[in-house]
Design a protein that fits this description.
By secondary structure, this protein is mainly α. The protein has 16 helices and two strands. It has one domain (88-389). The chain has a two-stranded antiparallel sheet with strand order 1-2. The N and C termini lie far apart (46 Å).
Length: 406
């Protein structure tokens, strides 16, 4: 870690510690929870495989996740070292490239057994562009709003162009049947728009349109309709596929009790809970660790939100402010949506738990976002070590609360 001349860290230490905790937690839980899936992947043709068989690798997921974590940490270091002005300079180009890539995924994307067709096969691995679309949307909206301070409150020059920009990213993701990622993208966009000075009446219009679109989707799209049925049937006797995941996640969380069954002792991950190491790792972890320990994960994401918005409040300029708000909203919103799904408080959305779930694209993209956020924190008045470093010599503070209530 980097220290300044007075012995303190340049970046926000509390934020870095929270992320480090989640990365370590994810590595431990994938090692514990991933054994059944590792056996299945390493020895699909063996009738009764066990860890004693030479052909079986019970830690295959752990090894793959460790490699992805190494790639993510490398990407984190690169993002942390990059000057923020570089991201601003190339934001328009990255946005155009991402729109093109998402359109390509609509044609050539693969689903790997899921409803969403949002993966691209690259050699012997796969990449999920919608994970990186979150970052690109944050870059471009931060760039765009930082140049249009005088027109944000306008319906014609602020609201409508914002909807068009957001739609260019969200619509291809919706057409890939990735509604969970679409929800996160919309929350990111709205958070930046709000901080830039949006009128509340315009936000209300946008919310009404989004609500109507959601109602239409529930009424007309079969798998979306089934997920809502599953959400409303959690406490009922339901043997259908669409309510299986929510029910089994509920059982996993409940059976863990206060203290859990212990590492590697979970039952749901082996026979009942699909995607136990991916989308439902929170529920599988709750079964093994119990409420007392799993609540620390919930607190860690709260800490990320607290420090992230504090960094945004003390950022050097509006571009950095919007960047920090977007990244923080992305990580925290996605985390709590995932936890809501795992605890049966929301319908199944198919999104990962940041820094914890098994998934390379999500892990790398999230670590790049945190690298940028820590870079912004170096010069933020609100970082844990930056207060004594900068004193009161700040000459500029972004107007974060310019929104009007009319």
């Amino acid at each position: 870690m980097v220290k300044n001349h007075k012995g303190g860290f340049k970046f926000d230490v509390i934020l870095a510690a929270a992320v480090g905790f989640l990365l370590l937690f994810g590595l431990i839980m994938i090692t514990s929870i991933g054994v059944p899936k590792s056996i299945m992947l390493s020895a699909p043709d063996i009738l009764y495989p066990s860890c004693s068989d030479e052909a079986v690798d019970c830690y295959l997921l752990f090894k793959k996740h460790l490699m992805r974590l190494a790639a993510g940490l490398l990407a984190f270091l690169v993002a942390y070292k990059f000057p923020i002005k570089i991201w601003r300079k190339f934001a328009p180009l990255m946005f155009v490239a991402m729109v093109g890539l998402l359109l390509f995924v609509m044609v050539a994307g693969q689903n790997f057994g899921t409803i969403a067709s949002n993966w691209i096969q690259v050699f012997d691995t796969s990449i999920q562009p919608s994970e990186f679309a979150r970052l690109v949307l944050i870059f471009y909206l931060s760039y765009w709003f930082s140049k249009r301070a005088g027109t944000v409150e306008s319906f014609q020059d602020g609201f409508l162009p914002f909807c068009f920009i957001l739609g260019l990213i969200v619509l291809p993701v919706v057409l890939q049947n990735d509604f969970g990622a679409s929800l996160v993208l919309c929350l990111i966009g709205v958070s930046i728009y709000f901080m830039a000075g949006a009128r509340l009446r315009h936000l209300a219009i946008g919310f009404s349109v989004a609500l109507m679109a959601m109602i239409i989707a529930v009424a007309t799209v079969t798998h979306v309709q089934e997920r809502f049925k599953g959400f409303t049937s959690i406490d009922e006797e339901c043997l259908e596929d669409y309510c299986w995941q929510s029910q089994q996640a509920n059982i996993a969380v409940g059976s863990g009790g206060f203290f859990g069954k212990g590492l590697t002792q979970g039952v749901q991950k082996s026979y009942w809970l699909p995607q136990a190491s991916d989308d439902f790792i929170f529920a599988a972890s709750a079964e093994e660790l119990g409420f007392i320990r799993i609540v620390l994960v919930v607190i860690a994401y709260f800490v990320i939100g607290w420090r992230g918005y504090a960094i945004a409040r003390g950022a050097q300029n509006t571009f950095e402010t919007y960047l920090a708000v977007g990244i923080t909203t992305w990580i925290v919103a996605q985390a709590y949506i995932n936890i809501g799904v795992n605890t049966a408080l929301m319908p199944v959305t198919g999104i990962t738990l940041p820094f914890v779930s098994y998934g390379g694209s999500s892990l790398v993209a999230s670590l790049v976002g945190i690298g940028i956020l820590l870079k912004i924190s170096e010069n933020s008045d609100e970082t844990s070590s930056g207060i004594y470093r900068r004193g009161n010599r700040r000459a500029y503070r972004p107007q974060l609360r310019r929104y009007r209530r009319g």
